[in-house]
Design brief:
The protein is an all-beta fold. The protein contains one helix and ten strands.
Length: 178
């Protein structure tokens, strides 16, 4: 199931005056408490080592990266690869649950306009949310006035997404990441 690969990502500013984060109870919760959070997003585990794929803009604010796994385990994250021009980043968590389950990556080559898709993420910090829709367009490009970057070959879809969904997987009808 995709839920065992889904993670909540929070970045917190690091300043000399910052108190250490309050201890968090173990176990999953319905809502993360985004106190003093710079950014909130989603990511998903892509290999047995626990490497996490997310959007670059989720971790771009800098600061401490906190990753919460499906079972409530919290770890600090380190950026091991960043591709800002495509809004992608790979994180390495300091610790990984024993029973982590990497997502199955399918690629987008077989997608067609009208295919059903599911967006999975943590909108507003509410963990493991799902919204369904269809592929609206393929091969789209987008110029970001914020970054000045042109992103190419994007998948356009109409499933509802909100702040916190960024970095989460888009799944095909087989539950595989496209």
């Amino acid at each position: 199931s995709i839920y065992r690969s889904l993670v909540l990502i929070r970045t917190k500013p690091t300043t000399p005056e910052s108190p250490p984060p309050a201890p968090r109870p173990s176990g999953p919760s319905d809502k993360a408490k985004p106190d003093d959070v710079s950014a909130l997003g989603t990511g998903f585990v892509v290999d047995e080592m626990g490497s996490i794929l997310t959007c670059f803009h989720v971790i771009a604010p800098g600061g401490k990266i906190l990753i919460t796994f499906f079972d409530g385990l919290e770890a600090e994250g380190e950026v091991i690869y960043a591709m800002p021009e495509n809004d992608l980043a790979v994180l390495k968590p300091s610790v990984v649950p024993d029973d982590v389950a990497p997502a199955v990556l399918a690629g987008s080559g077989s997608l067609r306009i009208g295919d059903e898709v599911v967006a999975v993420g943590n909108p507003f910090g509410i963990v493991s949310s799902v919204s369904a829709g269809v592929v609206s367009g393929l091969g789209r490009s987008f110029y970001s006035p914020r970054t000045g970057q042109q992103m190419m070959n994007l998948i356009q879809f109409d499933a509802a997404v909100n702040p916190g969904n960024s970095g989460g997987p888009l799944l095909d009808r087989n539950g595989e990441v496209v």
